[in-house]
Design a protein that fits this description.
alpha+beta; Arc Repressor Mutant, subunit A; Dna Ligase, domain 1; 2 domains; three-stranded antiparallel sheet
């Protein structure tokens, strides 16, 4: 995403285009998996002359989440919430229990099951999440 596109995105969502917001958004955009606020803080702090406060990272993430730009993932590793760019698609994840690698799963196998559950229970199902845990190919080799 180019600087101009990000400026327009922030303008559309009535957000100031600060250096910290820009860096945080781009870091999440480039990340291949959801990451914690602490990891974001560490990665941004390395790039800045003047370090960012962890509380600032949390405030930016909360603002981005409220604006629908970022998702606070249901995945919880080691007691820490994880964040990712809102790709505007329903996603599930595979999680390696050894190295904590997180891989998105394409498609959702639960759509038909939700319909059947609604019929059986009378519930109106609003959402679900699915985490599948195992060992990634790299960890299986070690």
């Amino acid at each position: 995403m180019y600087q101009d596109e990000l400026v327009e995105l922030f303008k559309k969502h009535k957000l100031k285009n600060t250096n910290h917001r820009h860096m945080l958004y781009m870091l999440l955009k480039e990340s291949k998996q959801p990451i914690s606020a602490e990891e974001i803080y560490r990665l941004i702090s390395v790039k800045l002359d003047k370090p960012i406060n962890l509380s600032t990272v949390y405030r930016i993430l909360e603002t981005f989440e409220q604006k629908g730009l970022v998702l606070k993932s249901q995945i919880n590793l080691n007691g820490k919430a994880l964040y990712e760019i809102n790709h505007m698609e329903h996603r599930h994840h595979l999680i390696c229990i050894k190295c904590n690698k997180i891989s998105p799963i394409k498609g959702c196998p639960l759509g038909d099951y939700e319909i059947e559950l609604e019929k059986q229970t009378g519930y109106k199902i609003l959402e679900h999440n699915l985490e599948i845990k195992g060992l990634c190919p790299s960890c299986q080799k070690t």
